UniProtKB/TrEMBL annotation:
<feature type="domain" description="ABC transporter">
    <location>
        <begin position="7"/>
        <end position="224"/>
    </location>
</feature>
<dbReference type="InterPro" id="IPR003593">
    <property type="entry name" value="AAA+_ATPase"/>
</dbReference>
<dbReference type="Pfam" id="PF00005">
    <property type="entry name" value="ABC_tran"/>
</dbReference>
<dbReference type="InterPro" id="IPR003439">
    <property type="entry name" value="ABC_transporter-like_ATP-bd"/>
</dbReference>
<keyword id="KW-0547">Nucleotide-binding</keyword>
<dbReference type="GO" id="GO:0005524">
    <property type="term" value="F:ATP binding"/>
</dbReference>
<dbReference type="InterPro" id="IPR027417">
    <property type="entry name" value="P-loop_NTPase"/>
</dbReference>
<protein>
    <submittedName>
        <fullName>ABC transporter ATP-binding protein</fullName>
    </submittedName>
</protein>
<comment type="similarity">
    <text>Belongs to the ABC transporter superfamily.</text>
</comment>
<keyword id="KW-0813">Transport</keyword>
<keyword id="KW-0067">ATP-binding</keyword>
<dbReference type="InterPro" id="IPR050166">
    <property type="entry name" value="ABC_transporter_ATP-bind"/>
</dbReference>
<dbReference type="GO" id="GO:0016887">
    <property type="term" value="F:ATP hydrolysis activity"/>
</dbReference>
<dbReference type="InterPro" id="IPR017871">
    <property type="entry name" value="ABC_transporter-like_CS"/>
</dbReference>
Amino acid sequence: MAGAIRVSVEDKRFPGTGKSVIKGLNLTLKEGEFTAIIGPSGTGKTTLLRIMAGLDRRFGGNITGVDSIGMVFQEPRLMPWLNVLDNICLVADDPSTDDVKARGRALLEQVGLADWMSAYPHALSGGMQRRAALARALMPGPRLILMDEPLVSLDKGAAKELVELITALWQENNYTIVYVTHLVDEAIAMADRIVFLSGSPASIAGEVTIPLPHPRTDKDIARVRETVVAAML
């Protein structure tokens, strides 16, 4: 992926009902930028990610500048009959090759699961399963990573650790990230920019830049929270 990614959704309708869920949405993502998307339930945040991932092609509009994508879903979606390493390698063209296995082991080391490669998903905590899902998203070597509320249902400690891991991987690898959340503080903790969706059908209602260095403390987040919330109104 070279340069900016441009997303244009002129109209997205639900099959069957014909109801328009997103209309007139235009979004430009700079290379290496971390963009958080916030909006009420039902404003098409997950639908937008699915469109960007190529999982939903039934929409009016186009997306340019994307050539490799990794996606982290709300649920880890690990295969219970495969161990952690095999789950990570599953998305490769040939999961059985030595090169793929070596890359899988390296990724699991990066996300802190080096000692759990042979374990099965049921043996992992919720936070560990999310780390495994993140490693799987990185397996194809994407430049664009889409994340759909990956911290949902995690306790505060596990969520904080995952925020730190995602931020570190982003900074080290210059990924372009689009991160959906309904929590303002979560968005402030990581993103360069927060984009707000609202309306029915949904469109971009506004955005705000977060001019804070990393790592961001609770005091940093509190200092800009009021500005972010005001921009959402």
